[in-house]
């Protein structure tokens, strides 16, 4: 089967759209055995997004070759106007069947990614993005304004402590080892093959970053879906898999610290902009977590 034959199949049998796809990609079923993913530059109206899909096509063709957790891809078409990817169709793991065994398999696949060698094309120079005094003052003033919308409900004192330590937190968080990152690691990008192994799809965001970034995003998306898992046990399973693959040792305390640091940094810089006019409960949720996560980091 190739892309041309898949398109002939769609013309003869009608287009069964599995999903509209994130960011307007079309994903079609081909006889229950294959999936055809198609992206057209003209429909996206966004050159940067189209380039991200081109990076995904490159990843399937060459960048991720031999990784061991990619879906089988049978044909690719990658032009300046259209991207088509023909791959095997797999089952999707069910959120309702989450257990320790399934989470361990997911962590095994993520460890494969993080233990892999970073392709030269993805290597980028990096320096920590420290905040200027003006930027820190802007965030502090923004947070104070949010808290003052709820007189007497919040203690603003922790803001001084967080602001004073912000660049130290950024520097420490930035010291985490740079590894290959999926960049959009969440449940909807997981597939289940015939052997029960977990594969990872949708690689538009592939790049470099910290292991805690992929893990944090995975946990936060599950929490957003109302699903609670034992994050410590999951990270410990990840650590066992990573050590077996690469010999590197990663602890829960280390990953948890970096996840908390990322939340403190993002919350301090950004969240005050979105909380004006929010009810007290919402502010308490975001502000309270930022303050709690900062303990031990400041």
Write a brief structural summary.
By secondary structure, this protein is of the alpha+beta class. 49% of the residues lie in helices and 14% in strands.
What does this protein structure show overall?
The chain is 49% helix and 14% strand. It has helices at residues 3-13, 41-44, 47-63, 100-115, 133-148, 157-174, 211-224, 231-246, 252-270, 280-294; strands at residues 17-19, 26-30, 34-40, 73-78, 82-88, 178-181, 190-192, 198-200, 207-210. The protein is of the alpha+beta class. The relative contact order is 0.13. Strands 1-2-3-5-4 form a 5-stranded antiparallel beta sheet. The chain has a two-stranded antiparallel ribbon with strand order 6-9.
Strand adjacency order, main sheet: 1-2-3-5-4
Portion of residues within helices: 40-55%
Q: Residue ranges: pLDDT <50 for 5 or more in a row?
A: none
Mean pLDDT: 94
Q: Largest sheet, described in full?
A: 5 strands, antiparallel
């Amino acid at each position: 089967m190739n892309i041309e034959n898949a398109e002939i199949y769609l013309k003869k049998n009608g287009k069964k759209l599995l999903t509209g796809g994130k960011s307007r990609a079309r994903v079609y079923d081909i006889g229950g055995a294959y999936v055809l993913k198609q992206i057209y530059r003209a429909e996206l109206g966004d050159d940067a997004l189209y380039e991200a899909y081109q990076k995904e096509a490159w990843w399937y063709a060459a960048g991720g070759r031999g990784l061991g957790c990619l879906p089988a891809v049978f044909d690719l078409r990658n032009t300046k106007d259209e991207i088509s990817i023909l791959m095997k169709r797999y089952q999707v793991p069910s959120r309702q069947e989450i257990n320790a065994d399934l989470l361990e398999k997911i962590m095994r696949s993520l460890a494969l990614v993080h233990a892999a060698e970073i392709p030269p094309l993805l290597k980028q120079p990096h320096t920590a993005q420290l905040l200027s005094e003006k930027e820190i003052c802007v965030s502090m003033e923004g947070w104070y304004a949010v808290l003052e919308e709820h007189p007497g409900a919040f203690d603003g004192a922790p803001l001084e402590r967080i602001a004073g330590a912000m660049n130290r937190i950024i520097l420490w968080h930035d010291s985490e080892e740079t590894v290959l990152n999926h960049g959009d690691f969440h449940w909807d990008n997981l597939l289940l093959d015939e052997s029960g192994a977990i594969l990872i799809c949708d690689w538009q965001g592939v790049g470099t970053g910290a292991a805690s970034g992929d893990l944090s995003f995975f946990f936060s998306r599950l929490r957003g879906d109302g699903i609670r898992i034992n994050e410590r046990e999951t990270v410990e399973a990840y650590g066992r898999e990573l050590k077996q693959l690469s010999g590197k040792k990663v602890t829960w305390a280390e990953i948890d610290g970096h996840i908390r640091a990322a939340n403190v940094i993002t919350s301090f810089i950004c969240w005050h902009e979105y909380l004006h006019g929010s009810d007290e409960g919402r502010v308490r949720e975001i502000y309270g977590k930022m303050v709690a996560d900062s303990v031990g980091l400041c």
